[in-house]
Amino acid sequence: MRMEEISIVNFKNINEATVEFSPRLNCFIGKNGAGKTNMLDAIYYLSFCKSFFNASDLLNINHEESYFMLNGSYDRLDSSETITCGIQKGQKKQFKRNSKIYKKLQDHIGLLPLVMISPSDVELILGGSDERRKFMDGVISQYNQNYLDDLLKYNRAVVQRNNLLKHFAAEGRFDADLLSIWDDQLVEYGTRIHRERTEFVEKLIPVFQRYYTFISQGNEEVGLVHQSDLYENDFGQLLKDSVMKDRAAQYTTVGVHKDDLLLKLGEFPMKKLGSQGQKKTYLVALKLAQFDFIKEISGIKPILLLDDIFDKLDQHRVEQIVTTVAGEQFGQIFITDTDRSHLDAIIRKLGTDFRIFNVETGKVKPVS
Ligand SMILES: Nc1ncnc2c1ncn2[C@@H]1O[C@H](COP(=O)(O)OP(=O)(O)OP(=O)(O)O)[C@@H](O)[C@H]1O
User: Fold this and answer.
1) pLDDT tens digits, residue range 34-62?
2) Which residue ranges run through the membrane (predicted)?
């Protein structure tokens, strides 16, 4: 799959841009703060109906304006797709596929597979367990629409159950039957979520380790372990056994909303012992494994966005990454950098079609 063209109006610092892309490699070069990442984010937005960075849509509208528009043309499985998105202050977000408005944005997720590798991925290592659950959920929902549905229902049931626990505490009473209505829902959705996450992580691990070994040239061993209350226990029983604890805490203390991924360097946590370059390598390997995974399941090569990928990595690792993404298994790539030297190496290696764009204070111009 590839994006052929994007038109942008008032998206962050990009007031107006229409850019035609290469089917293989597209490089955005410019100084810090020029708008390179904003270009990638606009592409990301058209796949996920949201920014990679800002949860609030309003933050993506240019500060001086009251709306933004994005329009992307794609070649997907040999047919053309046009995706349009418009955000106007005070109005509902509009997302259209071939001029037809989506009733539910959720229906769009997965149509245009995409993997973004960004410096802010480091939160996956440094942040709380919610970051790592978000990672699993984000990938699985790209190929499994029912998963997102289960997740929304599960999260709603957790909120309701927690409200009930708080209500009981405030009233100084307890009704086990009433609570068990939510237990049944948690078990139904939670068991399916657990199964999907387990399968995903099991398939991801060997691919991830292969990428890590290749990029680090076998210098380190890494691990990835899915941690969940549901591995050892029947979920329904677990909820029953935890009732006293839940009542004291006034929230649901067990379940898939507590899942985590243990990210390891050798036998130790990557978070504590990994160097900056090792952490970056870990994240690149993880995201490339995600790429393979989505490609295999969807039968489509995702778009790959590489933001500031070379920072913190030594020359060997950079070369290994370049060699990897230059391979046939990858499709269209968008890459940002502050200078051309890394990119020239990629271009030489790819020996294939490419386009370079200069980005300067929100203006995007092809380099002839
Ligand atoms: N809503 C907005 N309206 C106007 N400008 C914005 C908005 N949101 C972000 N910006 C501006 O966009 C610029 C950041 O652009 P971007 O993150 O794309 O830079 P970059 O070229 O990737 O830089 P770096 O090399 O430092 O990563 C900043 O100057 C920021 O102030």
Assistant:
1) 999 999 999 999 999 999 998 899 999 99
2) none
- Tell me the β-bridge partners of 335: 27, 306
Contact 61, 68 (CB under 8 A): yes
Strands across the sheet with 363-366, in order?
A: 114-117, 303-306, 333-337, 25-29, 354-360, 363-366
Contact 36 CB / ligand 1 (< 6 Å):
yes
* Confidence class for position 368, pLDDT limits 50, 70, 90: low
Task: Write the pLDDT tens digit of every residue in 118-127.
Answer: 999 999 999 9
β-strand 100-101 against 114-117: which pairing, if any?
Answer: unpaired
| Domain hosting residue 227, numbered range | 126-298
What's the whole-model pTM score? 0.91
Domain check: are 5 and 86 in the same one? yes
Domain identity same for 24 and 86: yes
Nearest atom of ligand 1 to the alpha carbon of 41: 18
Number of domains in the chain: 2
Given 266, 298, 330, which residue is the final one in a domain?
298
CB count, 10 Å around CB of 102?
17
Residue 234 in tokens: 């029947």
Distances (CA, A) of 198 to 212, 227, 297, 333: 21, 9, 16, 29
Mean pLDDT of the chain: 94
The rounded Å distance from CA 109 to ligand 1 centre is 26
- Do residue 95 and residue 229 come from a single domain? no
Last residue of a domain, one of 272, 298, 324: 298
275 CA to centre of ligand 1 in angstroms: 28
One domain for residues 44 and 139: no
By the 10 Å C-beta count (0-12 exposed, 13-18 middle, 19+ buried), 220 is classed as: middle
Q: State in Å: Cα 8 to ligand 1 middle.
A: 15
Return the CATH number at 140.
1.20.1050.90
Q: What is the pLDDT of residues 341-353, one digit of tens each?
A: 777 877 877 777 8
In ligand 1, the atom with minimum distance to the C-alpha of 119 is 27
284 contacts 211 by C-beta, under 8 angstroms: yes
Based on the fold, state whether residues 199 and 323 are members of the same structural domain.
no
The complex's ipTM works out to: 0.98
Whether residues 108 and 144 fall in one domain: no
